[in-house]
Structure formats: C-alpha cells, structure tokens
Amino acid sequence: MLTKLKRHLDERGSMTIEFLGMVPLVFLTIMIAWQLIAGAHAVMLAESAASEAAKVYAITAEASEAQSAAENIVSAGGSHVSFNGAPISGTDQFSAAVTVNIDFVFLPSSFFPEGKPTFSYTADTSGKVIK
User: Fold this and answer.
1) Who has greater pLDDT, 125 or 115?
2) Burial of 15 (0-12, 13-18, 19+ CB in 10 A)
C-alpha cells in the first residue's frame, strides 16, 4: 500500500513541465517590453524632431528646411521608426507637427506582403519666427 502511494506522489519531471510552461510566458513578456522600449524611443525621436523643426523654422522661416531637419533626425533613429511628414502652419506665430510611423518590432514581415503594421504618433510644438 505504501509503495502505491509513493508511486502516485512521485514528482519527477514536474519541474521540466513547469519550465516548459513558463518559457512562452517569459518570451512574451520580453517581447512586449521590447516593443514598449521601441515605442518610447520613437516618441522621443518625434519630440526631438518637432523641436528641431521648430528651431530651424524660427531661424530661417523656411518650411522645407525645417521638414528636412526633422526627417534627418527621424531617419537616424533606426529601422523601426519612419518619417511621415512635418507640416508647419502659420507665418509669424507657427506650429509644427512631426508624424512618425512606428513598426511592431516582433511581427514577421513575411506574414504581411504589403508591409508590417504600424501605428503613428504626432509630436506638436509651436514657436515664433525670429526676425
């Protein structure tokens, strides 16, 4: 009777099963954290590009130069973020908005023939042209 009870209470291999159950959860948590980090990086890039566009436009009053400066900053950020425009409105008092597209980092490109899904973020700023 005692040996039957020991056979039913034997826990050999249970640690392996628990480990195999936790591995996907750990990987999923790491992937979500990495996407959050990539998103935060893209938001900081967009804010920096909007600030730079406002500085350039405040000095030169040329929208094309300001957009070019914003695009240079975003393009230096990496492949997970892409520039989507920087319209500037106003003449003396102006507002600049830089829009970026942020890729979902861990989605494979082979699943999406038209390109990876993205989400956009727009950073706004305003200023005054220096005369």
Assistant:
1) 125
2) exposed
